[in-house]
Design brief:
The structure is a homodimer of 246-residue chains.
Chain A (H helix, E strand, L loop, with lengths): L19 H11 L11 E6 L2 H7 L8 H4 L2 E8 L1 H8 L10 H25 L2 E5 L6 H8 L5 E10 L13 H4 E3 L7 H13 L1 H9 L5 H9 L2 H17 L5
Helix pairs in contact in A: 1-5
Chain lengths: 246, 246
């Protein structure tokens, strides 16, 4: 797949515009991705207006890509459209529940990733913002997302104006299991993680953050228990507000 | 992207074996997909043994692909490996919560879809089994998935022995919104769904099932409120069992 092996997240974009014709072609092609019952349980909200980008930015901790990218795409799990269809066709939909949320989130994320792979092939740069599910209510309010929709992914998109170094990955045998899950031991953890821990950039990362181990940078600074628990409570509240956990 | 526009789910496979070398190459290439904090919050369990396929089959409503495919891949959201890493590195992980589950499920699903796109390019056939989250506990038990892992996707994989007709898709303007979500009206539902409803295969589908509308086939037979609610309760129970909702 063209450019997959050299891909990087792109956070700086040139002034070259991203044409609607190109985006629409990629949106249509990505829709060939498998989808539950062929229902296409997703929506894409395209943000181009500066004012709307500025409103979305706080939900993404004001990462500069949100206001600097040509386009911001918010991909949503969507059981609203299917529900509206059913209600207009003498049918009684029952998609206000957790399974239906995960069905739609799955459809939306698979669609998102085909779109990413297509953008890689076109040479378009993008950055996937995991912050989308951190403060979903802000995004829901700004984009006016109705009941039975939920934002699950955001992509900032533009033509690249940087060529960052590629990040490392774990070896295949660290995450592939045969027949049953083989749980990890102190020895296998050493085998799989030592190379990552010894990378110059990761040693620096540990030092800058005043920590003893790389793992501590993740548990104590980047993704802490207290943040995760507070954000989980908000996430569940937003899922309830959007009608997915009644 | 090669073969994307003509892709179909493949449910019948030839006897030609799927080599481990090929799978391992695709597993490694797919790992270039973006991942949260470069943590790669996923695992893949490869099932080749007939006995294990037979054990997995009931969790997938005994769809014949599970026992007939060369390989079955179960892709799991995985915060276990990262947690074991942290515990072995004097760090205090806090990933037993809903946000962390969704973070890992997201990583796993994005990884899954790049893998699917790579398989399309190789000419490999696959069928995505949405049943994975319907009865996850059975899969957890068979594959011995530990706490902080959860199956989110299953792919049956083999060389194609069929060339099924391609299914239709909704038009791009049905699922793409600009600046804010434009909710649906009876008129826009007609615009977006009439072509689908008038397809011969869908008319037959309505007739065979003794229904008045296509939407009723979905709400009354394929994805009913009572099934969704019962499966949601099981899903939440399994999420709790696996330590993701404490």
């Amino acid at each position: 797949m063209k450019n997959l092996l050299t891909r990087c997240s792109i956070r700086k974009y040139s002034d070259r515009p991203v044409a609607d014709e190109l985006l629409n072609r990629l949106f249509a092609e990505a829709a060939r991705t498998q989808t539950m019952g062929n229902l296409q349980l997703y929506s894409v909200v395209v943000t181009r207006e500066a004012e709307m980008k500025a409103k979305l930015a706080p939900a993404h901790f004001n990462q500069p890509m949100v206001t600097e990218a040509s386009v911001v795409l918010t991909i949503c799990a969507d059981f609203n459209r299917t529900t509206q269809w059913a209600l207009n066709r003498k049918a009684h939909p029952g998609y206000d529940n957790m399974l239906s949320f995960l069905n739609a989130a799955t459809d939306a994320l698979l669609y998102t990733q085909t779109l990413c792979n297509l953008m890689d092939e076109e040479g378009l740069g993008y950055c996937y913002l995991g912050t989308t599910i951190y403060q979903p209510q802000q995004i829901i309010d700004v984009l006016q997302l109705p009941r039975l929709t939920f934002p699950v992914a955001t992509l900032t998109v533009g033509w690249p104006d940087e060529c960052p170094p590629q990040s490392d990955r774990l070896s295949v045998d660290s995450f592939v299991h045969h027949e049953t899950y083989r749980d990890y031991t102190p020895q296998s953890i050493d085998t799989f993680y030592t190379a990552k821990e010894q990378l110059d950039e990761n040693r620096r990362f540990v030092e800058i953050n005043g920590k003893e181990t790389l793992a501590q940078v993740f548990t104590d600074i980047r993704y802490t228990r207290s943040d995760n628990e507070a954000l989980s409570a908000e996430l569940l509240k937003s899922l309830r507000n959007q009608g997915f956990m009644v």
